[in-house]
Amino acid sequence: MLVGAVLVLLLLGGAGPASAHAALGSSVPEDGAVLQRAPGDVTLAFSESVGLRDDSFRVLDPGGHRVRTGATGHADGRSDTARVALPGELGEGTYTVAWRVVSADSHPVSGAFTFSVGRPSPTAAPADTGPTEDPLTATLHKLARYLSYLAAALLIGTAAFVALCRPPDPAPLRHPLAAGWWTLLGATVALLVLRAPYEAGTGPATALDAGALADTLTARPGVLLLIRLALLGPAALFLVRVSRADRYRRGPLAGAVGGALAVALALTWAAAEHAAAGIQVPLALTSSTLHLLATAVWFGGLVALLLTLRSAASDAATAARFSRVAFASVTVLVATGVYQSWRGLGSWQALTGTTYGRLLLVKVILVSVLLAAAAVSRRWTAVSATAATAVRGPDRVPERIPQPAGGPPVPVPVPEPEPESESGPKSADAADAATLRRGLRRSVLAEAVVAAAVLAVTTVLTGTPPGRAAEEAARTAAPAGGVLPASVTTIPFEIGTAGRGTVGRGTVQITLDPGRTGDNAVQAVVFGPDGSLAAVPELRLSFTLADQHVGPLHADLVDRGGYWSANTVTLPLPGNWTMKATVRVSETDQVSGTRRIRVER
C-alpha cells in the first residue's frame, strides 16, 4: 500500500512544479521602465506576506555581471514587500533584477524583470532567475512531506481508535503507534534538514551548510517543524499509557490531553500550508486543522480496525463503534473540504483551467470511491454484528422464583444448553460469521488503499498554487523577462442619425498584440447597442503620441467578415499614445471615439 501510494505521489508530482501562493503585484522600478537617473533601491509588493533570504535579490548589469547590493528587508515594515538597496554609481544601460522569496504557505517563488538607466542597452543580460527547483531535492522533500502526513494519520488515528472504539485488546496496535511516531520523527527531521536547499533550489548537499540550517531554524517554516519535534516528546509518553491494556481507559482527562496534543500537531501543518495565506486566515486555519484531524481519525482508524480484525480478540462492537466514528469524520471532511475548495478555487473556471483545480477533481473522484468502499464496510459491519449475536446465542435470564418468607433460599434452576453436533446450527453460524469477518477485512483494506492515494493527492495539492492565487497572479504579476500580455481597449461610440438625436451606443473592442514598441498586430470587433456583433461599412484606426509629435499613424484595417484586422502597425516609441477609432455607421454618418493607451518598450 505504501509503495503504491508513493508511486502515485511521484506520478502526480510531475503534473507541475511545486509553486507558491504569493503573486507579485508591482515593482519599483516597473518592468521595462526607462529612468533618467539610477534608483536607490528596488521594491517589490506581493499579494501576501513573504519571507526573505540573504540571496533574495540578484541584480545584473548590462554586461551580465552581478551588481553588489545592500541589505535585503521589508519596505516600511510591511511583510508583503521586499526591498534591496542599490549602489549609487549605476551606469547607463539595462539592468536585470532576479528575485526569489518564500511565500507565506512555505513554498519558494521567483521571477525577474528589467529596467534601464538613461537609455536601454542594445542587448540586455538574460533574465536568469537562478535555480527554480533541484529535481532530487524536490523529490526528497515531497516524499518526506507525504510520509509526515501518512505518519500523522497513523499516529493520531490509531490513538483515537483505542480511545473511542475500545478494542478488547489494544496490544496489537502498539506497532502502528510506534511506526507512526518514529516515521513522523524521521520525516520531520528530513524536512528540517532539506528546508534550506528546497528554498534555494539547490542540491541536497547544501543541507550540510551550518549557516543555511541556522537560518532555517529562525524562519517560520523551520520554527513550526521544531514545534512539531517538541510535541513528539509528550506524545510518546501519552502513547505509552494509551497502548497498555490496563490503563488505556483513562476517562475525560486522558481524552482531553490526547485531543490537545492532536490539535497542536495538526496546527503545525495548517500554519505552514495554504491556510496560512490568502483570505479568511483564522477560519481557514480552523478548517484545515479539523480537516487533517478528521482525515487522521478515519485513515488511521481504518489501519487500526484492519489489525484488530486480524486479531482473535476482535469483536463486532468495536467495528460498530468505529463505523459511527468514521461517519462523524466523513461529515467533518465534507464540510471542511467544501469550504477549502471554495477558498482555493475562487471560480468555476479554475476547476478545469488550473493545475490545482484538476488535482482537486482527482481527489474528489478518489474520495467518492472511498465513500463507496466505506458504505460497503458499513453494511458488512451491520451484518457481522448480527452474525456475532447469533453465534453467542440469546442471553439466558434465570426465571425468578418466589422465596418463602423466612425460609431457606430455593436453588434457581439454570437450563442446560442443548447439545449440538459439529454440523449443527451453531457451527454453521460460526462459519457464516468468519466469512463475514473476512469480507469486512477486505472492504476495510480497500478503504485503506484508496485513503493512502487520497493522502498522496492531498500532499501534491498542498504544494500547488490554489486556483484563486493562480488567477490573481495572472492578473497582477509582473511577467518575467519583460513579456506583457496583449493590450485590449474598448472605445464607445454613439449611433444616431443627423437631426434625430442619439438612438444607441456601440463599442469597438481593439486588441493590440503585443502592445509594445515595434510591430503590432491589430484586431477590432464592433458591437451594437444590444451587445451583438455589428456590421459597419468602414472602420478606421489611428495612433498619436502628442508629447513627441508623432502621428497620427494609421492602421490599414481590413474587413474579415465579423471583425477588422491589420497585420502590422508600427509604434516606434514608448509612452502614452492616443488611439482614435472612427466608425462609419451609414453611408452618410460616422462617429469617433478616443482612448489613451500605454505602450511599453
Number of helices: 12
Fraction of residues in H or I helices: 40-55%
Oligomeric state: single chain
Tell me the overall shape: elongated
The total of beta strands comes to 19
Q: Could you tell me how far the N terminus lies from the C terminus, measured between alpha carbons in angstroms?
A: 56 Å
Alpha-beta classification = alpha+beta
Could you describe the largest sheet, including whether it forms a barrel?
6 strands, mixed
Segments where pLDDT lies below 50 for 5+ residues?
1-20, 391-418, 420-426, 475-486, 497-502
Radius of gyration: 34 Å
The mean pLDDT is 74
- Report strand %: 15-25%
Task: Describe it.
The chain has twelve helices and 19 strands. The chain is α+β, with helices and mostly antiparallel strands and 601 residues long. The strands form four sheets. Strands 2, 4, 5, 6, 9 and 10 form a six-stranded mixed beta sheet that branches. A hairpin with a 4-residue loop joins strand 14 and strand 15. Helix 3 (174-200) packs across helix 4 (210-218), helix 7 (281-309) packs antiparallel against helix 8 (316-345) and helix 10 runs antiparallel to helix 11 (425-462). It is elongated and about 95 Å long. It starts with a helix and ends with a strand. Residues 1-20, 391-418, 420-426, 475-486 and 497-502 have low confidence and may be disordered.
